[in-house]
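Supplementary Note 2. Why include the ligand at all?

Several targets in our set were suspected to adopt different conformations when bound, so apo predictions alone were not considered sufficient. For every target with a known small-molecule partner we therefore ran a joint prediction. The input for fructose -6-phosphate is given below.
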Amino acid sequence: MKTLDDASRTKRLDSQGMLGVLDGYVDGFLQAYRAASHARLAAPAGLGNVLICGMGGSGIGGNLVAGLIRPECPVPLTILKDYQVPGAVGPKSLVIAVSYSGNTEETLTVALEARARGATLVGVSSGGQLMKLAKERGSAYLPVEAGFAPRAALPHLFGTLLGAANALRLATLAPDAGLASHLRRVHAGLKPDVPERSNPAKQWARELHVRLPVWYGAGPLAPVALRARCQLNENAKMISRNDELPEANHNELVAWNSVKRGGGYFVGLLRQPDEPKEIARRFEFVETVLARRKVPRRTFTATAPTPLGRVLETLLFVDYVSVYAAFLRGVDPTPVDVIGALKDVLGKSGRAPEIRKRLR
Ligand code: F6R
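The joint prediction is reproduced in token form.
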């Protein structure tokens, strides 16, 4: 049986230090939040709607912020992961374009089109063409610390976006005084030097790395289920799926109810202690069905006292699970060469030449 407690083995596999990056999670988020919340940003007068666009590891920052601020955001908020700008985007729109590299063509296409329609643009990146576009054309720009794989920069991207949402008066949600110490305590229990017998992230990884993991969250934890899936895709190089409650109770539940002897799946339920009663009842019902169909499953219930703390705590947990799953599968968590190969192909054709022309 492969061990997760042998530091020399994990070090050999982790050639670019994905585990080490997780050490900076809490500070990275808080520093980015502080910087962005003090930025001088302004929404257009008579703000009509907000669009946050970004792909993959960058785009998830938008989902996380939307999941938290939607209940208080005074205007409609859309998350876009595509080339096509919605018809509602115009001079009264605020468009936040997020691309860690600054060179992702879907995000650049939307940023250019948003500007052409007279929308107010805020660029978020660690450089690249998005920085050039924002700076040279008088749009607001928020830099994010460079040097990470895009998905590993999530704490920075998420902190930047949440800080920007506050600076733009779309939200009032801010880290509370106890957040950092709570997260550091949780973090200490997930680190590689904590042996598998008492490390829940290692235990989850052991159970799911040979199955098809399916993640469920509700409300602000729904985007964390998406993050869990994407981290398993990219870090552990394995197929994983996610969905959210209550929606999945109206379709996927039927499929679970037909699974035979577990069906090769693993289900990760991401919950909050104070979730609404109707959501709690739904999770309990799903668990009953999964138990009947003998599907291996585990529940993670964050303990932080605020929704923001619970989102960060659950993010940290699933990120560790994904890196440990990579080690159990014998793969290096960092490289995602095939994404780069596709970007190279598209860089020579697709939208890239047109984007380059419009950016000149
Ligand atoms: C790579 C990763 C990818 C990228 C995506 C978009 O670590 O997570 O999902 O985030 O290809 O690229 P960026 O983030 O540079 O806009």
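The pocket of fructose -6-phosphate is lined by residues 55-58, 99-101, 104, 107, 149-151, 234, 336, 339 (CB under 6 Å). The two ends are 56 Å apart (CA to CA). Comparable summaries for the other entries are listed in the accompanying table.
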